[in-house]
Amino acid sequence: MAEQLLKPKRVLETGNEIALRFTPGGFGTEPWKRGRVSGQPGQVRVDGTEILLIEDGHERRVEIGGLRSEVELLGVEAAGIETGDGIPVDPA
Length: 92
Prior knowledge:
Elements: H1 2-14, E1 20-23, E2 26-29, E3 42-47, E4 50-55, E5 58-63, H2 68-74
Antiparallel strand pairs: 1-2, 2-3, 3-4, 4-5
């Protein structure tokens, strides 16, 4: 998740390498002040069994699963992973 989804979104918005931190319910990127693509402050996180995108204070979530909805939410490509392959997630 971090390498294939969070990292590409952070690089897209900041031009910087990935920077992760603990967040409520999981882990995520450091927040960015103004995205290069979105033009908004934001952050992307894994929260339990969901990917969470926060842009300009608004949250959008999708369940982690077949990658298609995750890729669409973040506007990135998951290099080396076919969408629909499925990612097993243990909520514990």
